[in-house]
Amino acid sequence: MSEIIYRDAKVEDAEKIVAFYNYVGGETSYLSFEKDEYPMTVSEQEDEIRSLEGNQTNRMLLAMDGEEIAGIATIHSTHKIKARHDGELGIVVAKKYQKQGIGSRLIQMLIDWCKGNGVTTRISLDTRADNIPAVALYMKFGFEIEGCRKNSTLLNGVYCRATFYKCLRLKEKSR
Ligand SMILES: CC(C)(COP(=O)(O)OP(=O)(O)OC[C@H]1O[C@@H](n2cnc3c(N)ncnc32)[C@H](O)[C@@H]1OP(=O)(O)O)[C@@H](O)C(=O)NCCC(=O)NCCS
User: Fold this and answer.
1) For the packed helices 102-116 and 132-140, what is the interaxial angle rounded to 10 degrees?
2) What secondary structure letter does DSSP report for 125?
3) Which secondary structure element, helix H or strand E, spans residue 52, and what is its range?
4) Is the dihedral angle over the CA atoms 13, 113, 127, 125 positive or is it negative?
5) Residue 111: enclosing H or E segment and its boundaries?
6) What contacts 165, CB < 8 A, 6 or more positions away?
7) All structural domains of the chain
8) Which GO molecular function entries does the Swiss-Prot or TrEMBL record give (predicted)?
9) Ligand 1: centre distance to CA 99 (Å)
């Protein structure tokens, strides 16, 4: 493994990104999609990446091992004024690259960016309660459990234990 480079996704990466997601979907049951179930085509992914240029609240970061994608982290929020401060975080690191600090680095970079983008004040995400590495990772960065969504995942005919909704508040000013 060469040195991991962290950078924004480019339109030319679209094919690799779609292939990566379709592949890692089969490596873990913790993503919302299965192998080859990633919901975007290459051209939709290209459009999505174009929409990120100059976008204040949405970003896609890649961890690259040379030409190979090792991991991807995204933050995304709606354009709606009442909700655009609430970014949803997504992250996956390919199995062979896990436990080497890549996930931590990706999250740290997104949190730092959110703190400076002038809009995002809250980061949310869902994860399965039994996803030990992800729960440990989020806790390490100060995410808090806000609640649970019972039976929200159906895995091989069995409903999974509560899915927690965690949040990291970057600024407190609630009433
Ligand atoms: C969750 C995930 C992104 C972590 O990525 P990673 O690159 O392995 O994470 P890191 O190496 O930076 O480890 C970060 C922290 O997670 C925890 N962690 C990682 N792997 C762990 C494991 N197998 N068991 C327990 N804790 C673990 C540790 O607290 C670690 O921090 P530390 O090394 O300072 O103690 C990765 O496991 C993954 O992609 N899983 C499959 C997809 C997924 O579950 N995505 C999240 C869906 S909500």
Assistant:
1) 40
2) E
3) helix 42-52
4) negative
5) helix 102-116
6) 124, 125, 126, 145, 146, 147, 148, 149
7) 4-169 (3.40.630.30)
8) acyltransferase activity, transferring groups other than amino-acyl groups
9) 6
Structure tokens at 103: 């996930």
**Cα atoms in the 13 Å half-sphere on the side-chain side of 136:** 6
Atom from ligand 1 closest to the CA of residue 30: 44
Q: Which residue has the tokens 């999609």?
A: 33
Residue owning tokens 């996956």: 92
Counting from 1 in the atom list of ligand 1, the atom nearest the Cα of 105 is 12
Q: Which H/E stretch holds residue 139?
A: helix 132-140
> How does pLDDT run along the chain (175 residues), one tens digit per residue?
689 999 999 999 999 999 999 999 999 999 999 999 999 999 999 999 999 999 999 999 999 999 999 999 999 999 999 999 999 999 999 999 999 999 999 999 999 999 999 999 999 999 998 999 999 999 999 999 998 888 888 999 999 877 777 788 887 665 5
